[in-house]
Amino acid sequence: MNFLKLFLVALAPVLNTLFIAIIGAVLALDNIGILTKNAKKHLNIIVYFVFTPALLYSSLAKTITLKSLIMLWFMPLNILLRYIIGTTLAWILTKITRVPRHLHGLVMGCCAAGNLGSLPLIIVPAICKGRSHPFGDVDSCYHKGLAFTSLTMAVGHIYAWSIVYNILRIYTPKTMVVKFDESTKFEEINNPKNLSICSIRALTPIKEESLSNGHIDQLQVECKVIDGQEKVVEKPNIMKHLKILGDKIKLKELFAPALWGSMFGVIIGIVPQFRKLLVGQSAPLHVVQTSIVMLGEACIPSMILLVGANLLKGLKGLGNKVPLVVGIIVVMYIALPAIGICIVKGAAHFRLINSDPLYQFVLLLHYVVPPAVSISTMTQLLGVGQSECSLIMFATYSSAPLLLTLWCTVFMWLVL
């Protein structure tokens, strides 16, 4: 196929995504008022706890088998390489552009974690359903593409919450809070006035009020003067140390609802007895599978609507962040795809991966998608870099219709 026809094949799914995102932006306008702040919050919760795990479970249970899982061993490694390379390039970018330290984690996260969930799950099946797609039989292409992108989504989500979330946490400024008396509210300890009060007077034993408020690390201590005598700070016991360790590790993020959905989907897919029980019209419990599939189908449009609604914030506050935004676009749409081509074609040359053009196309697609939507959720949970995240999302997703389409065209041309 010539380059123009491949470009038109790649353009259709990108335009579909853009159209839904525009609807989300319109619904979030103040004079429309449908996707308000509270509405987005509740929809985000539903997507996180219901739609995403349902989608991952239904897709993996239907498409993944033990044989295909073994054949796709390179995919998790490929995604991990994308995270490592993206983080390294982002670290170099922060040094060049002199980004404030509290935004280093955001820049690294945006460059490391691509949207490996909704976009591949839209683009690849849509290409397979196209009239002139280059990947052979429509049904075979669609089912294989769904298996590839479902596993991509599951692995990408695990990496995002286990790697990127902790990178963001490391660079999130730790806030310490001080209480002076019963009538005084907690205030930040880095306030110079508060520091002077605490430094010139004696302190009572420090009491740890709460080490975790949602997902934001805080240390609340009480500072009180008694008879001008200094007290020794009380040492926390073993249980408090364990609580601190648990809060720092954030194990519950690794076992997010999406991970449970992925685990159950893989188990159902690779165990023949479970698969016969749930998957297929003749399965005794196919009603359960059908219900979960219906819930999962609402995930992608909901996520894209939220992306469009959140992009409105990016229209404001560009200011002096132009070098940073341009640098991120260069990393995500020039450097990463070029490196990805070298990795995937090198793996194919040394026969580390099979010669299936669709499989190679999905591997290449990992390196060109814009930042993951979950990063926006992480910034809200941690309370840092929310406006900058919206700006980065707006710039990268606005560039996607042209740049992502061009790279998809180049990738199809390379693998055929």
UniProtKB/TrEMBL annotation:
Q: Name one Pfam family in it.
A: Mem_trans
Q: GO biological process: what's one of them?
A: endoplasmic reticulum to cytosol auxin transport
Q: Which residues cross the membrane?
A: 6-29, 41-60, 72-93, 105-127, 147-168, 254-272, 292-312, 324-346, 358-379, 391-415
Record has Endoplasmic reticulum as a keyword: yes
Location comes to: Endoplasmic reticulum membrane
Q: In what way does this protein cross or attach to the membrane?
A: Multi-pass membrane protein
Origin, by domain of life? Eukaryota
Molecular function via GO: transmembrane transporter activity
**One GO cellular component from the entry?**
endoplasmic reticulum membrane
Which keywords annotate this record? Auxin signaling pathway, Endoplasmic reticulum, Membrane, Transmembrane, Transmembrane helix, Transport
Biological role: Involved in cellular auxin homeostasis by regulating auxin metabolism. Regulates intracellular auxin accumulation at the endoplasmic reticulum and thus auxin availability for nuclear auxin signaling.
Q: What's the family?
A: Belongs to the auxin efflux carrier (TC 2.A.69.2) family.
Q: Which PANTHER family match?
A: AUXIN EFFLUX CARRIER FAMILY PROTEIN, PTHR31651
The protein's name is Auxin efflux carrier family protein
> From what organism does this protein derive?
Medicago truncatula (Barrel medic)
Gene behind this protein: 25500037
